[in-house]
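BUG: 3D viewer hangs when loading the predicted structure for this chain

Environment: internal workstation, default settings.
Expected: structure renders.
Actual: progress bar stalls at 90%.

Input used:
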Amino acid sequence: MIYVPDLQNYKCYVVQNEQILRGYKEIPRNNSTIEYRDFYMNSNYIYRDSSQQFSQYTTLPVCLSNDILTTEVYYRNDFDSILIIFFIMCIFCFYIPLKIFSRLFKKGAL
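Structure tokens produced before the viewer hung:
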């Protein structure tokens, strides 16, 4: 499965290379200019918008099947980094303040 952050707004997705997934707003056809968005999969899915012109001599890209595209967050390339950051944030936001308050109340009770 390939994670796509904006699956509903684009009609056709093409893998440009190992780092870039391109989403076309319309299905590419000859003699037309189509807007697209490049998603950089290994860079936290930042994107760049542009357009591409297809002439009558252009080889049209082959769209990926919708069966292998998903918006499930679990399929992101950086999901492990997200979990590590979440775990660290939980330690600093909940565990450490909880320990500090529990020690304050224990000493105050004596």
